[in-house]
Amino acid sequence: MADMDVDEVEVVVAHNERATLRVGDVFVKIDADQTRTDVEVEAMAMAPVPTPEILWRKPPVLALAALPGTALGHLGEPSTASSAAWAAAGAAARMLHDAPLPPWPGRSLDELASRLADECEWLVANDVLPADVVTRNRRLAETALRPWTPVFIHGDLQVDHVFVAGDEVTGVVDWSEASQGDALFDLAVLTLGHKEHLGDVVAGYGTDVDRDLIRAWWSLRCLTNVRWLAEHGYGSPDEFPEVAVLRSRP
């Protein structure tokens, strides 16, 4: 039999809810919850920003073409992207937030408040963080939980999900959390751990925003993510960038 060239299979994400593999220029996503995939496919079709091309779908598998460029950055590491690239990410977020709302709602204020309370209790009960750190961040996080005018949000707009080439955004991936929500949540997730680029993102976004509320969302995002990361095999909470952010908050 003649030798065949086989691309290396790279495991991008793997836990008991979903897995993403990369084979050459194809991303293969396997998700136990087809509702998430339904949202991802519909949101990409609606979004006014570049998204990956859907190559095929056969539940529970979705195959997507790789985007050109590289991720804007990685949480816990300095970003090598230019200030202009960060501003372009802000501009892309603004385009999304100005688009018509998706038909499905996001989490309600009551749901968010309940989850915040549960996660704070877990962090203290399991000695993940000192009670004073949790209390301080919870007080900040609660200021984000106020009425807002809903917009089309990505819902998980972390730096790893925004791809750039030079100073241009080439696309945004992982739309399974897209919904109606607070615009400042997307901006907070994008700048989490990269506060030095908040000014660039806001400049690209093109309108005044309440930076204190973005910082409040930083605390809420981190408080509500640590347990999930710990329970899905991402290592010791002491090593999570989210825990470092919580410890650094004044």
Total helices: the number is 8
Describe the main β-sheet briefly.
5 strands, antiparallel
- Rg (C-alpha, Å): 18 Å
How many β-strand stretches?
Answer: 10
CATH first level? Alpha Beta
CATH homologous superfamily - what is it? Answer: Aminoglycoside phosphotransferase (APH), C-terminal lobe
In percent, how helical is the residue content? 40-55%
Content-based structural category: alpha+beta
- Write the element-wise H/E pattern from the N-terminal end onward: EEEHEEEHHHEEEEHHHH
Terminal residue distance: 65 Å
CATH architecture, by name, is: Alpha-Beta Complex
The dominant shape is globular
Q: How many individual domains?
A: 1
Strand order of the largest sheet: 1-2-3-5-4
Measured by DSSP, the beta-strand proportion falls in 15-25%
Please name the CATH topology: Aminoglycoside 3'-phosphotransferase, Chain: A, domain 2
User: Averaged pLDDT, please?
Assistant: 95
Keywords: Transferase
Domain Aminoglycoside phosphotransferase: 43-205
GO molecular function, one term: transferase activity
Pfam family, one: APH
Plain-language structure description:
This protein starts with 8 loop residues before the first strand and ends with a helix. Helix 3 (109-125) packs antiparallel against helix 4. It has a five-stranded antiparallel sheet with strand order 1-2-3-5-4. The protein contains eight helices and ten strands. It is globular and about 50 Å long. By secondary structure, it is an alpha+beta fold.
SSE order and pairing:
Blueprint: E1 9-14, E2 18-23, E3 26-31, H1 34-46, E4 54-58, E5 61-65, E6 70-71, H2 83-97, H3 109-125, H4 131-142, E7 151-153, E8 162-165, E9 168-172, E10 179-181, H5 183-191, H6 198-205, H7 211-231, H8 241-248
Antiparallel strand pairs: 1-2, 2-3, 3-5, 4-5, 6-8, 7-10, 8-9
Helix pairs in contact: 2-5, 2-6, 3-4, 3-7, 4-7, 5-7, 7-8
